[in-house]
Amino acid sequence: MAKAKKQTARGRKQDRARVAGGQKYEVAYEAKKTGRSASAVKKAVKKVGSSRKKVEWKLKGR
Fold first, then answer.
1. Rg of the chain taking only CA atoms, in angstroms
2. Structural domains of the chain, count
3. Residue 6 CB: number of other CB atoms within 10 A?
4. Can you tell which superkingdom this protein's organism belongs to (predicted)?
5. For residue 44, is it left (φ>0), alpha (ψ between -120 and 50) or beta?
C-alpha cells in the first residue's frame, strides 16, 4: 500500500484561504477574529461563498 503524501505548503495555503461554514471551530475563529457572531459568519459564507477574503469583506459591512 502506498504511503500517504505529506500535505504541501500549497495545500495548506489553499485551505487557509477558505472558511468551512460547517466546521464549528472555523466559524468560531472567524467570528472572534472579526468581532461578529457565529451566525453572521455562517450567513456570510452562504451569501458570498467560502473565500476567506470575501467573507471578511462581507462581515465588515461592505
1. 14
2. 1
3. 6
4. Bacteria
5. alpha
Residue 62's H or E segment, with its range, is none
7 within a domain of the structure (yes/no): no
Distance (Å, rounded) from C-alpha 45 to C-alpha 58?
9
Q: pTM of this prediction?
A: 0.78
Provide the residue type at 46 as one letter: K
pLDDT tens sequence across 3-25: 767 767 777 777 888 999 899 99
User: How would you class 50 by CB atoms within 10 Å of its CB: exposed for 0-12, middle for 13-18, buried for 19 or more?
Assistant: middle
From CA 62, how far away is CA 57, in angstroms rounded? 6
Q: How many helices (H) and strands (E) does the chain have?
A: 4, 0
Domain range for 45 is 13-60
